[in-house]
Description:
Blueprint (H helix, E strand, L loop, with lengths): L14 H12 L9 H16 L25 H12 L13 E4 L2 E6 L5 E4 L2 H10 L4 E4 L2 E9 L1 H5 L1 H17 L11
Antiparallel strand pairs: 1-2, 2-3, 3-5, 4-5
Helix pairs in contact: 3-6
Amino acid sequence: xxxxxxxxxxxxxxxxxxxxxxxxxxxxxxxxxxxxxxxxxxxxxxxxxxxxxxxxxxxxxxxxxxxxxxxxxxxxxxxxxxxxxxxxxxxxxxxxxxxxxxxxxxxxxxxxxxxxxxxxxxxxxxxxxxxxxxxxxxxxxxxxxxxxxxxxxxxxxxxxxxxxxxxxxxxxxxxxxxxxxxxxxxxx
Length: 188
């Protein structure tokens, strides 16, 4: 692993000059561990020097696999565990999404878990109304928008996999009957 040395630059430089300085820095000195903490500290020092006018403005960020951290959901761990228990009881359904866990069939979302740990479940109209009444819940709301096909699964029900399974099965069955969404073909 190479060391990136940030040099103080008295006057602004062109992008090519900056790249040349970075390459020079990469080829100098002994290697040191490059951890997320290293990058956090380094960018603090660069920002501090830039704000004081000691270095030219830096208009790019270096991103490599070694500097990126794996994204995870901000939902409470117990909610993620309950959601995973439910999904694993359906062998043909796969949990997707690192930051927002969800399930989908033919590009139709069947369920998801938001950052607060609330589960949204897509149900057909008749079952949706029955679910709303039985569990005294409401249609799911995300970013101030009511999602008319999704119900909010009460937290106690999310924890009760056996009771929730038939509703999830109904969602899967209904979504499988929907026409697959057209794939977005980029570059064509």
